[in-house]
Specification:
By secondary structure, the protein is an alpha/beta fold. The chain has helices at 2-7, 15-27, 47-54, 59-77, 82-85, 88-97, 101-111, 117-138, 158-188, 193-213, 238-251, 276-289, 339-342, 345-348, 384-392, 412-427, 474-478, 481-506, and strands at residues 218-229, 260-263, 292-300, 307-315, 318-325, 365-366, 372-377, 397-402, 431-435, 441-443, 460-470.
Length: 519
């Protein structure tokens, strides 16, 4: 008994200590993402949290530790928002952390006590399915969007990117959680270690099978795309000074024969209909470089009420008429959800004083060369469905215009840049991630990094030879089948649990003792 207490002492600690451990265990997976980028840690990062939750004295306590761990995870992944949201980020983490409470209950019911092979086998599919439902719900744009999905930690791992082309980021998340569950089973379930070992081997086999046999995109030439990154520009008249710097950098591209020049999010601070002088300067840049410019206008529009963030294509004579208005806005950064209730957030942080307006539909733009591009703005590159829609609509290149200057010295720029590889691998379409202040990067159709990224210390213009691909990825064709499969698993699990509860109720809640063994 003494050795058992020593071995499992932390898990048998008092409620306050267990609560603190839950927060720390939930925060541990944040180290898998950039900037630490300890991607290999994702294979074991959930194990401490799983072991803690399954050892809870009651299901209610397990749900609480799931909640606390979820809050810890969100705080760790989004800690760079603290300067903007201040104490409000604690409120958001606590509210969204509640999504992990049912997950904690599922973990406790399947792995708690001394589980046998049957319960452990069920855990290998039910626990990751429940995790996927948490990721799906919190991916709703009004709850903050899909930033920090567990599978996104594998953005630089080729086998994981190959899996993403089959089932999107959801399949990668599912397999990671399943692997962690199998390893936890090996530790906590002596009677079912064979089940845990088989589960771990199955996860490895699926990853290897995807790497060896998943279809790959076919090369279809290349296109030269330039990224203009002006660097940090703060202070008085910063929009105008930023425009001047972008203009200066763009002129350096003359003679380098780019097919497209991309500026970052909010690169133009005034509506072009109100500023004919800016239109003329942009058209002159298009003529000098011999390429269209994709700029991003963050301003109050002359033709419609409200402020929009819009990707605008500029040709040699001015705007071509192709325009995409950002559809999914950053909560608190670009609008305040339920402003009548939460408007006080503007007094404690840097929440938007006025809500931006939303666009109505995605847009695919055609360049003079015939290349079709699909623009995304800011954290829209985190949404798998948006890039999938653009690929289905015929975009040959996805272009994400971003600005993370507010979080320049945090993990945010690297986390954001890493999403380019995931969206490229899912869609078989290269992704150009252009920012104002770094990190700007380009990912090829397989998710591979193309050229050298522009770091947060750079103010430069760079031309990338971007490989193109033909074909349609399985994920673009079939969609979120991993999510639908997880829903099916949970429905079956809930139905089985309900049937067992009804049988117990009909039998009066009694439990039959096993018959004595005959010798």
């Amino acid at each position: 008994m003494a050795s058992s207490v020593r071995r499992y002492g932390p898990l048998r600690a008092g409620p306050w200590r267990r609560g603190a451990l839950a927060v720390v265990a939930g925060a541990l997976p944040a180290l898998c993402f950039p900037a630490p980028a300890l991607w290999w840690l994702a294979y074991v990062a959930l194990v401490p949290w799983l072991l803690l939750v399954r050892s809870a004295a009651t299901g209610r306590r397990a749900a609480l530790e799931g909640w606390l761990g979820g809050a810890g995870f969100l705080l760790a992944v989004h800690h760079w928002l603290l300067p903007s949201l201040h104490v409000f980020i604690l409120v958001l983490a606590a509210l969204l952390g509640l999504l992990w409470a049912p997950w904690g209950l599922v973990v406790h019911r399947l792995l708690g006590g001394s589980p046998g092979a049957g319960r452990c086998a069920a855990a290998l599919v039910v626990v990751p399915s429940a995790w996927l439902m948490v990721e799906l719900v919190r991916s709703w744009e009004y709850l903050g969007g899909p930033w920090g999905l567990f599978g996104a930690s594998q953005w630089q791992v080729p086998p994981a990117l190959r899996l993403a082309s089959l089932g999107g980021i959801w399949l990668v998340s599912f397999l990671l959680v399943a692997l962690n569950t199998a390893l936890a089973t090996l530790i906590c379930a002596p009677r079912a270690r064979a089940t845990g070992a088989v589960g771990a081997l199955a996860c490895a086999a699926v990853a290897a099978g995807g790497w060896l046999w998943a279809p790959q995109p076919q090369a279809a030439g290349s296109v030269r795309i330039a990224v203009v990154q002006p660097g940090v520009v703060f202070g008085a008249h910063s929009p105008q000074r930023r425009f001047d710097r972008e203009e200066e950098l763009t002129r350096q591209l003359a003679g380098q024969r780019p097919d497209l020049v991309v500026w970052g999010e909010s690169s133009v601070g005034e509506d072009l209909d109100r500023r004919p002088d800016l239109r003329k300067r942009l058209a002159a840049l298009s003529r000098e470089t011999g390429a269209d410019l994709l700029v991003n206008v963050d301003a109050r529009r002359a033709d419609r009420p409200g402020i929009f963030k819009s990707s605008v294509l500029i040709g040699p004579t001015g705007p071509t008429g192709d325009r995409y208005d950002k559809m999914r806005l950053v909560p608190f950064g670009e609008y305040v959800p339920a402003r009548s209730l939460l408007g006080w957030a503007t007094s404690v942080g840097k929440a938007a004083g006025e809500d931006r307006r939303r666009g109505e539909r995605p847009v695919v733009m055609r360049l003079p060369s015939g290349l079709r591009i699909g623009p995304l703005v800011c954290f829209e590159s985190a949404f798998p469905d948006m890039s999938r829609k653009l690929a289905r609509d015929g975009a040959g290149v996805l272009v994400a215009q971003s600005a993370t200057s507010t979080f320049q010295h945090s993990w945010a720029p690297r986390q954001h840049a890493s999403l380019a590889a995931l969206r490229a691998a899912e869609t078989w379409r290269p992704v150009v991630h252009a920012t104002l202040t770094g990190v700007s990067t380009v990912a090829g159709p397989r998710g591979e990094t193309v050229g050298a990224p522009l770091g947060t210390e750079r103010s430069a213009a760079a031309v990338y030879e971007v490989p193109l691909a033909r074909g349609t990825s399985p994920y673009v064709r079939t969609g979120d089948w991993a999510v639908l499969g997880s829903v099916t698993v949970l429905v079956c699990y809930a139905a089985a649990a309900t049937a067992r509860a009804l049988r117990r109720r009909r039998s009066g809640g009694t439990v039959r003792k096993p018959a004595p063994e005959r010798r």
